[in-house]
Design goal:
alpha+beta; 865 residues; six-stranded antiparallel beta sheet; five-stranded antiparallel beta sheet; elongated
Length: 865
């Protein structure tokens, strides 16, 4: 253990299953009474005989010596031979009234690995240390220590949580490479020119390396959250470069020299690129400055993506035009693939033009259809289950054992060993740890370490469900197997498959207990909950000792002698230290285990009065069996009780919260109120903050666009596509079986900025056409056809850039799926609607901008004059 504590980055080393020895003196109350010996006699004798006292110094002319009177006892036999009483020609030794033995100090706990007794060291890293580095240092120390172990002792790593972190980070790195490859393929398929493809691809390493510099500046670390932002950034950072490249390439195809095309094309596209960059960066401002879990976890995600987007905009305005002027050439002969691709795109433009013509002729019908789709989208939102965070398959299943409150350690451990036999029959379980006496003798905790996900056919949740089905046959104890919740839930406690709720009252505990019994009975009727329990229970059986004070005073018995006798014999009491083998151990006085079984033992204990008479406690003490609550809780300074309800498969925390609120309103009296705790509390807080974040994101984007377009109308035209992108994302989540959670909500916020890019491209070019004298319908039609290829290119690059997240497999894949599918589905369906919604909205709202266009035209004419 000391070697582990000194390893770099280690903050704490916890020991599980340790057996600290003690010198236990087991006393026999019957023999003590027969020998006229009390507990105080024995304890005082041990303290008197087992002592080492500094006794001064012996001084000579040249030096002096310390003198120590050493009366310490150094062996168990010496303790057993202690003379407790020597009078009336009778010698009473400790062995005559009890027995001194070396035994464990704590006899109500056990730790096993694979069913065998073991001692485990739990390494806790420092808060600022990298867990992977700490694991590396600890493993190096471990390999050295194992070489020095004595014969017959074996050591191994049975649980290493950093394996999940390492594999999760590795899978994200793989996703980054896949995203780069997908984006490269998309750009080439649209342009058919390797020289042109090189220009936006160069943007990727430039932006990523620059963003790493920002991470260092902000003090962020490389973790799964920031790396997930990098995966999305790959699809985002090439967007601006693609728009710039496409516009310059279009002028080159029309016969301009590359340098002239670069100058003209870059000037035309400066405004849209600035608007798109600032819009997407503005989306993340509310997240970066939000408090709570949302801000703590995703501020790094938001600032990483915002930094990458801003850098990509700068690169698109500087590096990309320069490379276009140098790399692109005015090729006279197109390749066969380019001819085929151009032909297909021309056909697509013609079909799109036909669709736009039909839409403009039937605008009112299209508008009503869009409104109906919006209403259906709200219904779809209500159908998708909500939760704080998805459960991750971390190659682990935890099992919690809860016996009755008054159950002994032996009772609990019997069933713990019974469970261990079940684990050996499940092939997916690689190792299992068991800690009985976890927190109290009536509870236990077990960790089942599973084989890696790619080496088993059943998920961790499937294995937990199988175990819970087998646990139903065990009626004496409550056993629950569950997949460890997402680390997000650790902020407020709780588990991913349970809901914790506090019920508070201004009254006494008795009425609270009655109301709780009614509440628990009602909750148990609902199939959404598999197990419901509360803390406040009057089921703790205990024996109450009542002392007759008048008799005690009459018999002249010190009250302290009575309490010391009872507490020492029943609970155990320290009587000094015992030195053995260079170490010191506690000396524990306690009644022998055989006598502890009998509840009436208290009446057979004796104490000595001030008149030196041995008096039985039966003469002045009475014993009554009563019940009492195990604990009395307070919450927000009110008397409270906690309800813990385990969720049935298929139900989320959102379902549970709504249902528990409804039941509580119906069952609880008016003087009681509820408050959710743990994960449920975090879920409610994140939901409320997420709604504010959505509103602020839309507000920030609107204000940015108002400043860019110098119009209050154009931003409305652009943002009308957002609801339909959201509908696409929600539909995708429903189809793939995902939920609305903190990860998918972050994806939805990101989607706001992504889908707004399409409207910016079309609206900006349409405004220029309107200023040239064209009608709103002609202007938006020309803009839509002109910007169709960059819109499709950027959409394809963003979708394929997010596809590795959506199709991720491996550690942490569950959380990446939420963000990936939101981006993929939202962009795919949202782009389709943006090509319809923006033209329709532009023509409807154009009348509101007529005066502005007229004024600008008049201003231009005035300036010319």
């Amino acid at each position: 253990m000391p070697r582990m504590q000194t390893a770099e980055g280690v903050a704490l080393v916890n020991i599980y299953g340790k057996r600290t020895s003690a010198l236990r003196i087991w006393l026999d109350p019957t023999k003590m009474a027969a020998s006229n010996v009390t507990v105080n006699d024995i304890r005082n004798m041990i303290l008197d005989q087992n002592v080492e006292v500094p006794s001064g110094q012996i001084r000579s002319v040249d030096r002096f010596y310390n003198v120590v009177t050493n009366q310490t006892l150094t062996s168990v036999e010496q303790f057993n031979d202690l003379i407790i009483r020597h009078d009336q020609n009778q010698i009473v030794r400790l062995r005559n009234v009890g027995e001194a033995v070396i035994a464990p100090a704590d006899m109500d706990s056990a730790f096993r690995v694979q069913g065998s007794p073991a001692v485990a060291l739990g390494i806790v890293p420092q808060s600022t240390a990298n867990p992977l580095d700490v694991a590396h240092h600890v493993l190096a120390v471990f390999n050295e220590v194992t070489k020095t172990l004595p014969a017959g002792m074996h050591a191994s790593i049975v649980y290493n949580e950093t394996n999940f972190i390492h594999d999760s980070v590795k899978s994200v790195y793989e996703a980054i490479l896949e995203a780069i490859l997908f984006v490269l393929i998309v750009i080439y398929l649209f342009l058919g020119n390797w020289r042109a493809t090189l220009i936006p691809v160069i943007t990727i390493p430039v932006c990523l390396i620059s963003t790493f510099a920002l991470l260092y500046l902000f003090g962020f670390s490389i973790n799964t959250i920031t790396l997930m932002a990098f995966v999305l950034a790959i699809g985002l950072v090439v967007d601006d470069a693609i728009v710039m490249l496409e516009n310059i390439a279009r002028h080159i195809e029309n016969g301009m020299h590359p340098f002239a095309a670069a100058r003209k094309g870059s000037r035309e596209i400066i405004f849209p690129i600035i608007a798109m960059t600032l819009t997407l960066a503005a989306v993340y401002a509310p997240i970066a400055f939000t408090s709570g879990i949302l801000g703590s976890i995703f501020s790094e995600f938001a600032l990483t993506l915002a930094g990458a987007v801003l850098i990509s905009g700068l690169v698109a305005l500087t590096l990309s035009p320069m490379m276009c002027s140098r790399v692109l050439t005015a090729s006279r002969a197109a390749s066969p693939y380019q001819e085929w691709a151009n032909k297909q795109f021309s056909l697509l433009q013609n079909r799109y033009l036909f669709i736009l013509s039909w839409i403009f002729k039937n605008r009112s019908k299209v508008l009503w259809c869009l409104l109906m789709i919006g209403l259906l989208g709200y219904g779809l939102y209500r159908l998708i289950p909500s939760e704080l965070a998805p459960v991750e398959d971390r190659d682990e299943v935890n099992v919690y054992i809860s016996a009755p409150h008054d159950a002994s350690f032996q009772f609990t451990d019997f069933y713990a060993q019974k469970l261990e036999k079940i684990y050996s029959t499940i092939p997916e379980i690689e190792t299992y740890l068991s800690d009985t006496g976890y927190g109290s003798p009536s509870s236990g905790f077990q960790i089942l370490d599973l084989k890696p996900k790619n080496q088993r056919h059943r998920s961790a949740q499937d294995i937990a469900d199988i175990l819970n089905a087998q646990f139903k046959d065990i009626a004496a104890v409550h056993v629950m197997a569950y997949v460890p919740p997402s680390p997000l839930t650790w902020f407020g406690g709780g588990g991913g498959d349970s809901v914790e709720m506090a019920v508070m009252s201004v009254g006494d505990y008795k009425p609270l207990n009655a109301a709780m019994q009614n509440l628990i009975a009602t909750i148990k009727k609902y199939p959404q909950f598999t197990h419901v329990d509360n803390e406040l229970k009057w089921d703790r059986e205990q024996f109450e000792v009542n002392i007759d004070r008048e008799k005690v005073a009459e018999l002249k018995i010190p009250m302290q002698s009575i309490t010391n006798t009872i507490s020492t014999l029943l609970a155990g009491r320290n009587a000094g230290k015992f030195s053995f083998g260079g170490k010191q151990y506690d000396i524990m006085l306690q009644i022998n285990l055989a006598s502890l079984v009998d509840p009436s033992i208290i009446s057979r204990l004796y104490v000595r009065s001030d008149t030196n008479n041995m008096i039985s406690m039966a003469d002045f003490a009475s014993i009554h069996e009563t019940t009492s609550p195990g604990s009395l809780s307070h919450y927000e300074r009110l008397r409270s009780d906690n309800v813990v309800a385990n969720l049935a498969p298929g139900y989320t925390i959102a379902n549970a919260v709504d249902l528990l609120e409804k039941i509580s309103q119906q069952v609880l009296p008016d003087n009681m109120k509820i408050a959710f705790q743990g994960e449920a509390k975090n879920y409610l807080e994140s939901n409320n903050k997420m709604a504010v974040t959505f509103f602020l994101a839309l507000l920030f984007i609107y204000l940015v666009l108002v400043g860019q377009f110098e119009s209050f109308i154009d931003p409305l035209t652009i943002l009308l596509t957002v609801p339909f992108a959201m509908i696409g994302a929600l539909l995708t989540l429903k189809l793939v079986g995902c939920t609305l959670n903190i990860y998918s909500n972050i994806g939805l916020v990101t989607l706001i900025g992504l889908i707004a890019k399409h409207g910016i491209l079309m609206t900006e070019f349409a405004n220029k056409a309107c200023l040239e004298g064209k009608s709103a319908q002609e202007a938006i039609t020309e803009a839509a056809l002109l910007r169709l290829r960059p819109i499709l290119m950027t959409t394809a690059s963003m979708i394929l850039g997010a596809l590795p997240l959506a199709l991720a497999f491996g550690p942490g894949a569950e959380t990446r799926h939420q963000v990936g599918w939101v981006i993929v589905g939202g962009l795919f369906i949202g782009t389709f609607f943006s090509l319809i919604v923006v033209p329709v909205a532009y023509t409807y709202l154009a009348k509101l901008k007529t005066l502005r266009f007229l004024n600008m035209t008049q201003l231009s004419e005035t300036i010319d004059t």
